[in-house]
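note to self: dont lose this again. the chain is below, predicted strucutre after it. 327 aa total, dont forget to put it in the shared folder this time
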Amino acid sequence: MSSDRNGELFTVRRYQYKNGDFEIDNPCVDKIALHPFMTFWGDNSHIAERLQAIQNMALKEDNILIAAYPKCGTHWVWEIVSMLIKGKADYQRDIKEEFMIEGKIDLSSVGSSESSRILNTHFPYRFLPRKLIENGGKIIHVTRNPKDMYVSMYHHAVNSGLFGPKCENVIWNQYFNDYVFGEVQFYGTWFAYEREMSWSKKENKNILTVHFEKLKSDPSTEIGRIADFLNIHVTENLVKDIVNKCDFKNLKKADKDVKTMGNEMKVLLESTTKENPSIKLPEIYRKGAVADWKNHFTVAQNEKFDALLEIEMKDIDLDVFYEIKNT
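---
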């Protein structure tokens, strides 16, 4: 066990749940299932120590952290920010996971180069490095319609073995019941993540929220907002080039043609697959669509989800742009 920024303890336990071909068997903190990469550190006590080490990372004011719940557009915004920092619309050759704080083996190397200034994570706010917050580091929070996010997570999980060795057989209805309305989710629920971020934004003015849907409908304006937040002067031509390079179909092609995996990520992946043989890297870019949830949710499921949303997000300013209900 290790203490977090509020003086509480990181208590890591193994959570196991199985229903037919659906299975979760992962280390958890509270009801937050940790990324399979965390099993690299060994037993629960060592994972707790690692979580504390991440909180104590020596980050500086010029570090930039992209913080987003899974499947909300982290890859997309990370690529945009990388281009803004470089001042040219060139893809990063490294994959995003190389700069994911929960996937770093050598934390001392973080921030040692221009490219490693831009970090990313799916951790909730209270897990983030304290020095980044204390030193005024910039946090770009990416959010998305939770219905689309859960649809994207479904395809991601069944194609990556995240829900066990036979999870490719898990149909949407079982996933909806066992995961969306289950006891434990990876990185906690979307609701808990967004509630915590909403509360944190009231105290931390160095957080910018970017909506997946706004970035999709008006990328030039949103890229300009990100540049302004980072105090980066951009030309109209640079913005146009970034919009083009970060169009979904071009990002999907670049992910196959340009990206390479570094040694550190290879070690993590090898260790993770040894612990969980069903785990594999899925195709990151599937559709990148808005309102794809309407092709998955039944009317009854939509009503049930809307009722949960109203309970979970009561009195929370979601700063919503996206359509939640099917009106």
